[in-house]
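Subject: Predicted fold for NTP pyrophosphohydrolase, 168 residues

User T.R. writes:
Posting the sequence so we have a shared reference for the thread.
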Amino acid sequence: MIKGVDHSDSTSVRVITVSAVVVTRPDGAVVTVRKKGTDRFMLPGGKWEPGEAPLDCAVRELGEELGVSLAPERLTPLGRFDTATANEPGFRLVSEVFAAETDVRVEPRAEIAEARWLTTTELRALAELPEDECAPWAPLLVRVVREGSWWRRYRGSECDDRDECEEQ
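User M.O. replies:
I've generated the structure tokens; pasting them so everyone works from the same file.
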């Protein structure tokens, strides 16, 4: 059970399918978002529109939620992740996750109440949390940090810039 969310009903598995994006700054920090009316931080992203490809959804959601405009070729696929949902009891979350690096400013928009950058130190601590007791973080965020190859270059160091990170 995730704090505040009961996922114990296993009689029927209902699935929410989304695209999510790990947006990093050059220093390795990752942006997380909290939707209005919720207390959990998660990766930016959202549900696919009918006929929409996962990559197109990821690009659209970045614009809608954070005002970030990136060309599709700037996003790298990280894979599909199956986790508990953060805010929807009785559902599983299947996420097509992408990574993108940018140094543009993010601004919470639409249903996003808050955007928060996590440093590499915070990410390392997050990777140690059990997914069922990770509040205020979403299970998908914990899983992607723990299993994602996208941040290996940052994991072992606190780097101020990309060149310093790549040298270590």
